[in-house]
Amino acid sequence: MSFFRRKGKGKDQDKPDVKIFRAQAPASVHSPSRSPKNNALLEAAGPSYVAINAISANMDSYSSSRTAALKKHPMHMEATHFGDLGRSCLKYEAQETKSSLSKSLDQVLQDNVALPYFIQFMELRRMEHLVKFWLEAKSFHSTTWSRIRAYSLNTVKHSSLAEPVSPSLKRPDLSLASVDEQSQDFSKIPHHTSRLKGPDTGAKQDSASNHLGTKQKTRGPPSIHLELCPDQTLPHNEQSSMHTTSAKNTPTHTGLKDMSQKFMKSIERDAVHTFTKYISPDAAKPIPISEEIRSDIVAKICGEDGQVDPNCFVTAQSIVFDAMEQEHFQEFLRSHHFCKYQIEVLTSGTVYLADILFCESALFYFSEYMEKEDAVNILQFWLAADNFQSQLAAKNGQYDGQEAQNDAMILYDKYFSLQATHPLGFDDSVRLEIESNICREGGPLPNCFTTPLRQAWTTMEKVFLPGFLSSNLYYKYLNDLIHSVRGDDYSWSGAGNPSQGGQGTPNHSPYISAADNPGSQPGVKKSNVKILKNFDEAIIVEAASLDPESLYQRAYAGFYVLPSYEEMGPRKL
Amino acid sequence: MSETYDFLFKFLVIGSAGTGKSCLLHQFIENKFKQDSNHTIGVEFGSRIVNVGGKSVKLQIWDTAGQERFRSVTRSYYRGAAGALLVYDIASRETYNALTNWLTDARTLASPNIIIILCGNKKDLDADREVTFLEASRFAQENELMFLETSALTGENVEEAFLKCARTILSKIESGELDPERMWSGIQYGDASPRHAKHSHGTQQQNRQQCNC
User: Fold this and answer.
1) Which ranges does the record mark as transmembrane (chain B) (predicted)?
2) Can you list the residues of chain A whose pLDDT is less than 50?
3) Which residue in the set A395, A472, A483 is minimally distant from B181, CB to CB?
4) ipTM of the complex
5) Domains of chain A
6) Rounded Cα distance, B185 and B170, in Å
7) Domains of chain B, each with CATH number or no CATH
8) Which of A144, A165, A241, A261 could hold A229 in an S-S bridge, CB 3.0 to 4.6 Å?
9) Per the CB < 8 Å rule, is B70 touching A391?
10) Closest to A319 in 3D by CA, of A354, A360, A278, A359
């Protein structure tokens, strides 16, 4: 699936560019001001002068097609930002920047393989309530929005104005158009969210809506509605679901109202539960937030309109996230828990290039490998161009175009220019595309080097990754991970850790076991299999020390299912 | 490019923009001054093999962009470095004043135990000096850093800075203070390492322990 998307994106980008350049090729060839190819070494000032001259020549040859280019460009932007393909592109890029060997706290919290190790680590520091609160708040937030969305969809179904399948972008309008007052009330909440969080939230919501829309197209409304409940709602809501079914048979206003009340009650109950457990001054282990924020949360749970704000925990969640990141996460990355996780990833199945390039410890070994293979320039280019695009994208369009152009020209002079100091062998069409991207009015865009980046990526993935994974350097990398774990385990046991006493306990949570088992596949090497067996025991024993509260377990398990589902696709391919 | 070595160390070169980080790297690797004045985009790395106390050591040196706009992306390459050159420009008080921030980043993101040498670069511009040797020396002492003034232009003390750092790391390995096989140490054994035998021996021990389990 990922591979297909990658191809699709490539086609989308290449077609318009190819057309433009084909039209311009004759002009370029015959342009008298174009510099002839010259491999001779030039003086220090030479490269810059020739590069500038080359750019001028290309700009001159483009002048006749400037109007056509400008017309093309807006369409491209439109497709990227608003079309379905644009969303696919975003997903593609998002996937490419993730390493299973994990890089940031945000990624750990969403990775169902890494998360148990982080929880274990936090338990050793007596700070596991921070992680648990964050997970419950996230679960509450996403399930509440899902329930509201499901309810809105159901309401729309009862409206004569609604179509069975509607594009995700038009759904809010349909909700607004509905005569029913209930749907109008709920449609206000999404807008509120958008204003609070800005574009990022919008993107996430669009993604979720698109997901629902996709399901809707393939399976039809009734099955979708039923499928949502088992994964994301508590037993109480299963009852609501049954009621919904009967309401469908008898579409009365009274039925809708009744369901609405139960629906709001369940949300409120979830919110109060989380509040009582982690935020209340009487909580066994309250999270570190100020009284002001606590009052704000109370106000959002017990609002004047009787509705619970789905974002009531967002502020506290952000504070807890920052606390975990600043005080604990760096130590986690240096801990044997994280090494165990990395070993599990590296021995459980396929290792991808992203796993190496976005993990600094692996990159240390891969860099050395690329140097031995005399291919270090490809990696160098990818690192520099990726850094350029990352810092530009992080500015969300608010950047100095001239400064960005200067940065881009440095990379161009080094890797693309006819007098490049580190030529990589990109063909003329790529070089011309880059020249066009750099000289764009207003400065280059964050996707300025995407085409050559993709080519460099593919080269490293197809040509060099397989060799690395069977190289001596890779073996050393695994050995260092294993050595780190064994060393820490020894000193850890020697310290007489309290959880050691729990090793004999037969009791352990079935949910934890279920979550851990998929990642515990036997490795190819004999020694690794034994290590994994040893780890399984440790994991299970430590899991036993978790609180066995039933509500928590169910929420916990529910949280696990979603990420697994979303991450299944790329690995299969 | 297929030379053998006993150890491979990961090094960082960090500091404010324009202090001469890339020129130091270029001077160390190519033994000449880097003529083009382009600033670094994100991160680059180079390597060279040196002889330290009878051991052949390959230094994998990561040169980072000093511009503020690249700060958030370059930090992700700090982790797992064994040593670092912390560079300021002796003719720029501003770059010296920023050292505390760079030092905090290095110790937080790389490792609390990273071996750092403070480099006061552009020693050849003594006439424009804004930071005295004594002042910087005191800063280095207070923060447990080694200290040298260098000139990437003339090459003075450039190689010495890298060697001094590598020598310190090597002595910590030999004293057992640093474990090369630990993840994030920023150290790899090379193919020619005489400790390779010990390496294999360690592996065998691990195998035995696993069998016992």
Assistant:
1) none
2) 1-96, 160, 162-252, 490-573
3) A483
4) 0.85
5) 120-156+259-334 (1.10.167.10), 351-487 (1.10.167.10)
6) 12
7) 7-194 (3.40.50.300)
8) A241
9) yes
10) A278
